[in-house]
Input
Amino acid sequence: MARIGVRSTSPMLEVLENRRFRAIWYVVNVSELTRWMELLVTSVLVYSLTDSSLMLGLVLGFENLPRPIFSPFTGIIADRFDRKKIWVSSLAIKMVAGVALFLLLFLGHIAPWHVFAAMLAQGVSRALEDPARRTAIFDIVGERRVVNALSIDSMSGTVGRMLGPFVGGFLVEHVTYLWPHFPGYTWAYAAVVVMHLAAMVLAIRVRIPKVEREWRVEPIWNSLGDAVRAAFDHRQLLGMLFITIMINGLAFPARQFVPAIGRDHLGVGETLVGVLAAAESVGQLVTAIILASVGSVRYHGRIFAAGAFSVMITSTIFVWSPWYGVTFAILVLSGFGLSCFGTMQGAITMRSAPPEMRGRMVGLQSLCIGIGTPPGVLMMGWLGDLIGIQISVTLSALACIAVSLPALFLTPLVTRPSDPPPETRPRSDARPA
Output
């Protein structure tokens, strides 16, 4: 029987009592588990085919390449069109790409460029999905509980990142029968396809509220320009976006080279490589639970900055550990910072944006995430083949610290509480719809 007039004292439970939010959360759990499993499997596959750090890095590079190209447009799409249809379409793209790789593995015709093409399709899917899903969450829970909801949303990715690489690595290493070509990889991709299908079926059943928004009929570049101007008007948001570009270009790509570190420097197989790839998620999960349970947060920027710089610092050292257990522990510590960074990144973005511009602002955030990763991972992998992946990762992370520090002093990111958006300046050339 439903409880009437009784409100949960826990902010996290209050969010989870929302049936519409739970429906989205179930889909995200399945989708994120599949994503991280697939990323591990494709990374290990490409590295086993090529023995090249550059080729290994390109797996992540191609997955993130669509972000800077499509994200500004998908943010506008999320503001103007049915978010459920956008979300379901993005999941369908993932399933088609997964089926294609499964068939190529089954037939024994797989090549690195096939993987890169599939990762490119996955990147297009994520560029569509993120603004639609995250702004739908905001519409469902409201500003008061957006940090809690995004923390729970982050927990889904964390649990997926914790279990997915382990499952993928285990299937690749230990399930080696029935299919004549690439049997472990083929089994892994059979599981990936089933999980993509399950996520899409669950998403079709989700009910997302239709929210009427005011928007102007104007050229798309004017609409994008409004989002950029709004970001420059909000200096706290500007500082966050700058650090986001730097960390995604110079620190985060290091995680893509865990298969190389695990195989070549720690001497472990695919299963333990998968466990190592999941290490950060342990710290992420603990931190996400804490953030989801807090009543309110005033200084979002301080938590964001602390998380970002802890990730940068751990990136300089985890590649040098000669012991598997120590490497795992360092990556767990990095996960604490990663959760703070990711949750506050979304919270600052949506709290700082005018209501009619939230989709575009999430799209701009996604653009900043994607614009740094492809060149960053390309440079890190290229240097890895030349001077060794350990030196390459360390130099990149130190450069990230050096270029990100000024943002703490030149913007009010850590000195002021999170501000509401400034008044939206009307455009003189706009025409009402």
